[in-house]
Amino acid sequence: MAKSILLRENLRSKQVWGQLYGSSLPLILAEYSQAQSGIKLLITPDNLSATQLQAELDFFLEKKEHEPELLMFPDWETLPYDQFSPHEDIISERLYCLSRLQQTSNAIIISAASTLMHRLCPPQFLNQYALVLREQQTLDTELFRQQLQQAGYHCVNKVLEHGEFALRGAMIDIYPMGSQTPFRIELFDDVIDSLRQFDPETQRTIAKINQIQVLPAREFPLNEQSITHFRRAFRERFTGNPSQCPVYEAVSNHQYPSGIEYYLPLFFEETFTFFDYLPHDATICLIEAVAEQAEQFWQEVNTRYEQRRYDINRPILNPSDCFLNPTELFTNVNHYSSLKVQHCPSEKKGAFNFNIDHAPSLPIERQNAQPLQRLADFISDSGRRHLLVVESAGRREVLLDLLKQSNIIPKIQTSWFDFIEDNTPINLITGPLIYGAELIDSAISIIVESQLFGEQSIPQRRSSQKTIDPDLIIRDLAELRVGAPVVHLQFGVGRYQGLQLIESGGNTNEFLVLAYAGNDKIYVPVTSLNLISRYTGADSEHAPLHRLGTDQWQKEKRRPRKKFMTWPSNYLISMLKEKQNLGMCINCPKTTISVLSVVFHL
Questions:
Q1: How confident is the model at residue 164 (pLDDT cuts 50, 70, 90)?
Q2: Selection from 47, 568, 475, 538 nearest residue 287 by Cα
Q3: Whether residue 120 sits in one domain with residue 18
Q4: Is 107 found in the same domain as 237?
Q5: What's the pLDDT score for residue 204?
Q6: 461 has a pLDDT exceeding 50
Q7: Which of 4, 29, 9, 15 is nearest to 352 (CA)?
Q8: Closest CA to 5 of 352, 16, 25
Q9: Which of 151, 184, 261, 359 could hold 129 in an S-S bridge, CB 3.0 to 4.6 Å?
Q10: N-to-C CA span, the chain
Q11: In which domain, by residue range, is 491 found?
Q12: Distance from C-alpha of 496 to C-alpha of 521, rounded to nearest angstrom
């Protein structure tokens, strides 16, 4: 293992680590996880910080065989009691994480507090429906098809997404949950002759492998036994005629209705929590304001329960059936060895505050002949080693041009460990860090783009879409009529039903209501109007109405791309030349071009 920059032996007795500004927090967590084997659960305040922490830990972790496995247990990315289901890729990652927890003894799991407050399926469910396929194994194709369908897989003509399989004579294509690629199984009679990965876009095989693991496609079963249990539990929990409930009817007909995840407890005798998957010697690390965020999420759960509990045609379970309350969450946490880390200094008795400073602001001076003069002065005066971190190779090259103008020639590093094993004073690397840090005791300065170019250079990793000013959104919505077809980027063509005020977490916000097939609805914040576009088909009165929870929209989106790719390249080139318009040429200093390239992500 590489040498530690922050971790010290005397830290093991401390329960709180403070003054971990910027990127020093993921650095200490990476060093701690590498020094101590076992399962470590890192609980973040929210989903966005969990995603960012995963990227930062991957940057600081050494990539060796015996290093801890980095896992994410993602949120469903739906609001409590929502009437649409999470994306298949999210379910895949969740099931993979739960499965790996039963197989590995050295891993880092990252998850938000609200995600851990959801009740889960029993571990026995994953073991019961998980399959392992190997070369030269006998395989009954009809039995295998039944097993896949009972595990929630869909039989399709062409496998494109997680949870799909296709049977074509002596060849079976399947995209297992938890897998990065789909697989092609080739049979010789009833024996597996070969197992290969393939590209879902081109359908061409990539590489040969020895075995594959097939996890269930959902977090609950849908076989005769589980359906019977669901129907009985539904009638016991709710009054009224169950045949009037579309969820009850869909499950009875072996279908997956949208939002079925919030009825998960009805499929099992008892539910479990994420902590039931953890070994007793696991370590839990609480990051920043976890308790406050857990309380806020619990309030949101109860608010949405009150809003939806009176719908007799779609009754919902009590919050205690689907979620842990904050007290239950931290009761589970207290059963394990725990540690709290935070950016700000801690005044608690027994806490340890690191000797780390905030990263300084070193703004670029766009009008200066040497735009990075402040950075040059800081480097010459600080007496430390410096690591400049940019998000991509393209931005690295642009920054190199700017650095040369200030006579700063950094060494290009390929990993964090190459940097700490080197003694070069000025270094440059690509990485996902969005905040720098001054590591005083180690004489290391981590400098990121936001210190040079301001907050606008920090990428929005969760979405490439831009938000729109709410006032402009209201003016745009005034042009829409109720019932007009609209297109949601993720869910397809629906019907605009107007605006609705919804209170959540003590705040009242305005949402667009979009209706889909089967009387399903989604609620889109007005600040996310960028996800909505007008339907531009020839006849809006006969516009399609997509169904939530299916792959219909995703398949329709692929058709234009496939058609486009089949056009002759010479026709495309000639068409583009006809559309070409000559612009005005402006002579601009190289310094200005470099600055603009960095600021505007060119």
A1: very high
A2: 47
A3: yes
A4: yes
A5: 92
A6: no
A7: 15
A8: 25
A9: 151
A10: 38
A11: 470-553
A12: 10
d(C-alpha 561, C-alpha 128), whole Å: 40
Of 408, 427, 457, the last residue of a domain is 457
Is there a single domain that holds both residue 96 and residue 21? yes
Give the whole-angstrom CA distance, residue 72 versus residue 79: 19
What is the C-alpha to C-alpha distance for residues 476 and 458, in angstroms, rounded to an integer? 29
- The CATH number given to whatever domain includes residue 182 is 3.30.2060.10
CB neighbour class for 321 (10 Å; exposed up to 12, middle 13-18, buried from 19): middle
E strand segments, 490-529: 492-504, 507-516, 520-525
Does residue 194 belong to any structural domain of this protein?
A: yes
pTM over 0.90: no
Q: pLDDT of 327-373, one tens digit each? A: 999 999 999 999 999 999 999 888 999 999 999 999 988 777 788 99
Is position 478 within any domain?
Answer: yes
CA dihedral 225, 519, 258, 550 (to 10 degrees): 110
Measured at the CA of 409, the angle between CA 407 and CA 413, to 5 degrees, comes to 160
489: pLDDT confidence band, cut at 50, 70 and 90? confident
The answer on pLDDT for 116 being more than 80 is yes
Are 378 and 514 members of one domain? no
d(CA 129, CA 220): 10
